[in-house]
Amino acid sequence: MRLRQSKQLLLLLIVSVVAVLSAVVMVIIVFSNKKTEIITEPAKTVTTEITKSPVHKIIGKTVEGRSIDAYIYGTGKTHLMFIGGIHGGYEWNSVLLAYQFIDYLKANPEIIPENITVAIIPSANPDGIYRVTGTNGRFTTNDVTTASLPDGTGRFNAHGVDLNRNFDCKWKPKSMWESKVVSAGTSAFSEPEAVAIRDFVKEFSPAGAVFWHSKSNAVYASECTDGILPITLKIMDVYSRASGYSAVKSFDAYEISGDAEGWLASINIPAITVELKTHETVEWEKNLAGFTALLRYYSI
């Protein structure tokens, strides 16, 4: 009898041990599966975001409180900067061109070489854009007023300052636009829009910069007081040859002071001005060719 009871107890003990071991194994399996999910799933999400989505930054505010935006693509060590609309609604087509590049890069992120990061500031003077579109942020040609407006409407910021005369390169309080005397602000960088660009440049450290304007139908080099940087001439020629715009070393139609491109030259950053042919067209194919040629140049 005792022997039979001992065998029954032993069997019960064995069954209990097996049950406990099975439970432990199940816990390990479940934990392992959950741990795998925790490690792998977010990595997939992060990779997708980096590949397809730009980094959007508000780099400053205008006089009237509108946001000045930058969209950043890629993660390379060589930084390139493209800016539209510093003359606001007077050159609204340069803003539409910049937004078209934003859409293009979002759809085709693979065009950016691995060593390059691209920043696009589509509208450097949103208050000026508002003067002719009546809209905040993105707009279309249908938003642009067809009413007869005084020449230069939307060119200046809300203080009446020509922002491309407000940078620290041969700055003076009055400057020129064609035959007209224009305000350049109370000092270099007196305007919040110019400050936003200055501070972004200090943070982003671009190896080169392109400003889209209209309507001189050419690509211009930049300089301040020490002549044209050699690399500025190179990127001017690269964009010119690819796009078909004429390359012009110096703008001499009238005196310019306090321009953003000249300020960049003064701190050893090569910058070029791309002037579209009209105030209404974006000339997409020409500028896409110039843009991609610059990417190739800086990727070598």
Rg on CA atoms, Å: 29 Å
- Looking at the structure, the CATH topology of the largest domain is Aminopeptidase
Number of domains as seen in the coordinates: 2
Give the overall average pLDDT: 88
Strand proportion: 15-25%
CATH superfamily of the largest domain: Zn peptidases
List descriptors.
300 residues; globular; 2 domains; two-stranded antiparallel sheet; disordered N terminus; 10 strands; Aminopeptidase; alpha/beta; 8-stranded mixed β-sheet
Short description:
Helices cover 42% and strands 18% of the residues. It has 300 residues and is of the alpha/beta class.
List the helices and strands and how they pair.
Elements: H1 2-52, E1 55-61, E2 67-73, E3 78-84, H2 92-107, E4 116-121, H3 126-133, E5 174-177, E6 180-183, H4 192-204, E7 208-214, E8 218-220, H5 230-243, E9 246-248, H6 260-266, E10 271-276, H7 284-299
Helix pairs in contact: 5-7
